[in-house]
Design brief:
- By secondary structure, the chain is an alpha/beta fold.
- Helix content is 49%, strand content 18%.
- It is built from twelve helices and twelve strands.
- The strands form three sheets. The chain has a five-stranded parallel sheet with strand order 5-2-1-6-7, with helices on both faces. A four-stranded mixed sheet has the order 4-3-10-9.
- A hairpin with a 3-residue loop joins strand 3 and strand 4.
- It starts with a strand and ends in a 5-residue tail after the last helix.
């Protein structure tokens, strides 16, 4: 396949490098120091048991130089979606498959409003990967499968084709029974861990051990599950127990990405997370006081407002 990667951060570089190593023609849409690194050195991936570099790739800040592709991986932060719309429109032809990997439950709908909505899949990943320096990423621990799937029945062939390309390149990937449930399950975990840790300014260990902040985790999840149900997505009966088991299994020093962004003065994915819970709750008649508090506590530092 001819594949475009929008967003050459940790996820984009990791998946793009594996796709290029697997024989696909990969073009990165990047900028700044990352663009320069990709042009001069390619991508280097460091894993626990191996290291590899890929230089047979294209890197540009002009999407028109890549042109229409077979598959686009969108690996930016959720707050960058509007800004990448021109690049996406350059890469997307009538049959192009779009696979977004952002946090959030309505990313495909947002992208569909910015470009032709056909063949935009639901996608998510739990991959533990970080940027060491521009063009160099480190992946630690288990490579959990990327999950992807159609949000419309007509896009099942597109999902199958994307899955085939990923697996051919040695990327762990699966199509779950219902990608919507998978998206909301990740959302359930991400919203509570991001919010509670960011409000408290503490990593996962202290916040799960203190009874009051542990109760915030569960209360936040109850609201998310109620909103999901009102949208027609029914999560497993033990969804919240599954997520608390996952939370209890993390090393105590792990920090949610939003807390890391807050500590480093970076923008927050607040609108895509708690803002979405509050917004949907208002529209659907579901009370979301815990998520509203978290949103209110962080919005001035995030520089965002619900829209």
């Amino acid at each position: 396949m001819k594949i475009g990667i929008i967003g050459a951060g940790a996820l984009g570089c990791y998946y793009g490098a594996k796709l290029a190593r697997g024989g696909h023609r990969v073009g990165f849409i990047a900028r700044g120091a990352t663009l320069q690194a990709l042009r001069t050195r390619g991508v280097c991936v460091r894993r626990d048991a191996e290291q590899f570099a890929v230089t047979d790739l294209q890197a540009t800040d002009q999407a028109r130089e890549v042109g229409p592709v077979d598959l686009v991986l969108v690996a930016t932060k959720s707050y960058d979606l509007k800004s990448i719309a021109p690049a996406l429109r350059m890469l997307k032809g009538p049959e192009t498959i779009v696979l977004p990997l952002q946090n959030g439950v309505d990313i495909a709908e947002q992208l569909g409003a910015l470009t032709e909505p056909a063949h935009i899949l639901g996608g998510l990943t739990y991959l533990p990967v970080s940027t060491v320096e521009p063009g160099v990423v480190r992946q630690t621990g288990e490579e959990k499968p990327m999950l992807l799937g159609p949000l419309r029945a007509a896009d099942q062939p597109a999902a199958d084709a994307a899955l085939g390309a990923l697996c051919q390149a040695g990327i762990a990937a699966e199509i779950p029974a219902d990608i919507r449930v998978a998206l909301w399950m990740k959302f359930l975990l991400a919203v509570c861990t991001m919010g509670v840790q960011s409000v408290c300014g503490r990593p996962i260990g202290p916040t799960r051990e203190d009874p009051d902040t542990r109760a915030l985790y569960t209360a936040c999840m109850r609201e998310v599950a109620a909103v999901a149900a009102r949208t027609g997505v029914v999560l497993p009966d033990d969804a919240q127990e599954q997520m608390m088991t996952a939370i209890d299994a993390y090393p105590a020093n792990v920090k949610a990405s939003m807390l890391q962004d807050l500590e480093h003065g970076r923008p927050l994915e607040l609108d895509a997370m708690h803002g979405t819970v509050v917004r949907l709750g208002e529209a659907l008649g579901v009370a979301t006081p815990v998520n509203r508090f978290i949103y209110a506590a962080l919005k001035l530092r995030a520089g965002h407002s619900i829209s």
